[in-house]
Amino acid sequence: MRKLLVIAISVFTLFACTSKTETTEPKEENTTQVAQEQTNLSQEAVSLNDTTGKGLKVLLINGSPRKEGNTYLALTEAAKQLEQHGIASEILQIGTEPTHGCIACNHCKKTGRCVFDDDLYNRAYNLMSDCDAIIVGSPTYYGQPNGTLLCLIQRLCYSASSIMQNKPAAAVAVCRRGGATAVYQTLLMPFQMLNMPIVTSQYWNIVYGRDEGEAALDAEGLQTMRTMANNMAWILKKIHNDPETPLREKEHQVTNFIK
Ligand SMILES: Cc1cc2nc3c(=O)[nH]c(=O)nc-3n(C[C@H](O)[C@H](O)[C@H](O)COP(=O)(O)O)c2cc1C
Fold this sequence. Notes:
Layout: H1 2-47, E1 57-62, H2 70-84, E2 88-93, H3 107-111, H4 119-130, E3 133-139, H5 147-164, E4 169-175, H6 180-192, E5 206-208, H7 219-241
Parallel strand pairs: 1-2, 1-3, 3-4, 4-5
Helix pairs in contact: 2-7, 4-5
The structure holds flavin mononucleotide.
């Protein structure tokens, strides 16, 4: 009797395992199919109103020294989607040259420009003046954004806060495996204190990849970029249809904790 019971349990377990494997595989196929269908649907929806963003421009800052690496790939995915809305974009490469960080000299408070007159900063300043929104992308380096990018951003924010304010901004972090959420949060910090509306997506703006071009395999990451670009286009069009800026008090209170 006991032998019979053992055989019955074994047969049942074997059947349960087999049917589990059978249901898992088609589910994966379905997921890919659904993602593809959703992409097609979003492309269709986008092409309906592709002309209304004309005249608008988004500045993309590639904070990677690799000119056409994974950060570039993530940013260009967003740029292609913006183009669907008739919105232009221009990419600024951080490059491989060293740059200064902010030295807290307050020169920019008197002149409006950073005391260091280098090419990267000047290009960033001019592009920032000309654009309607900004997307900053960085690779993850030891759980942090690229230092060269941070140097530039700090100098830009201190000297160009008046031209940055009210412009929608998004951050993008790229990593092999971990630390990207810290990068994402760090990149957003200056925007959040410069009255810049933050543009979000269906997930945090994170794309995965290690070797150059690998990010092309991250289907969800790239979709997140497209959704962020759609949201950016939506916000930009709303702002430009109604350009009235929010009410702000004339005097900006600045108090230190000690006085
Ligand atoms: C100095 C250095 C540090 C890195 N640190 C991390 C890390 O902390 N976490 C991670 O997931 N990837 C890390 N990576 C991998 C990069 O984030 C990854 O290769 C990314 O795709 C590079 O983007 P890019 O192609 O735009 O340069 C590091 C790469 C370098 C060169």
